[in-house]
UniProtKB/TrEMBL annotation:
<dbReference type="InterPro" id="IPR000119">
    <property type="entry name" value="Hist_DNA-bd"/>
</dbReference>
<dbReference type="GO" id="GO:0030527">
    <property type="term" value="F:structural constituent of chromatin"/>
</dbReference>
<protein>
    <submittedName>
        <fullName>Transcriptional regulator</fullName>
    </submittedName>
</protein>
<feature type="compositionally biased region" description="Low complexity">
    <location>
        <begin position="12"/>
        <end position="71"/>
    </location>
</feature>
<dbReference type="Pfam" id="PF00216">
    <property type="entry name" value="Bac_DNA_binding"/>
</dbReference>
<feature type="compositionally biased region" description="Basic residues">
    <location>
        <begin position="1"/>
        <end position="11"/>
    </location>
</feature>
<keyword id="KW-0226">DNA condensation</keyword>
<dbReference type="GO" id="GO:0003677">
    <property type="term" value="F:DNA binding"/>
</dbReference>
<dbReference type="GO" id="GO:0030261">
    <property type="term" value="P:chromosome condensation"/>
</dbReference>
<feature type="region of interest" description="Disordered">
    <location>
        <begin position="1"/>
        <end position="71"/>
    </location>
</feature>
<comment type="similarity">
    <text>Belongs to the bacterial histone-like protein family.</text>
</comment>
<dbReference type="GO" id="GO:0005829">
    <property type="term" value="C:cytosol"/>
</dbReference>
<keyword id="KW-0238">DNA-binding</keyword>
<dbReference type="InterPro" id="IPR010992">
    <property type="entry name" value="IHF-like_DNA-bd_dom_sf"/>
</dbReference>
Amino acid sequence: MAKKPVAKKAAAKPAAAKAATTAKKPAAKPAAAKAAPAKKAAPAKKAAPVKKAAPAKAAAAKAAPKTATTTTLRQMSVEIAEAHGLTKKQSEEIFADMADRITKRLKKGERIRMNGLGTLEVRKRPARMGRNPATGESIKIKASKKVAFRVSKELKESV
C-alpha cells in the first residue's frame, strides 16, 4: 500500500524530486523488513501441516476412481429377463413386488433371510440424550427404528 502513494507523488514532481523519493524508498524497506519476520513465522508453522495434507488429498484422489458403480433394480431386472426368457416388464414387476413384500414384512417386525446374501431386520434405537453442536445445549433424541442388514458369511468370504 505504501508504494502506490509514492508512485503518484513521483509522477507529479519534477526529476529532482524523484531523486529525493528514491532516497526515501530505503526507509520504507526496513518497515517491510519488520513485517517480513512476522509473516515468515506464521507460514513456517502452517507449511508442515499443508505438506502432510497434500499426500492425503493425493491418496483420496487416487481412491476416488476405484469407487464401485451403483446398479439399480431396473438394471438387475433386465439381466434377469434376458437370462430367464422373460420380458423386461415382467421382470420389473417381479422386482417391484419383491421390494413391496420386503417392506411389508419389515414393517411387521419380521426378519428376512436371503441365503447367500444376509439378513434384513428392524432394530430399535432407544431414546438418548444428545447435544446441539451449534449451541451445546442438551437435547433429548427420541426412540426410533432402523433397518439393518447383516451380511452372511458366504458373501463376506466371496468378496
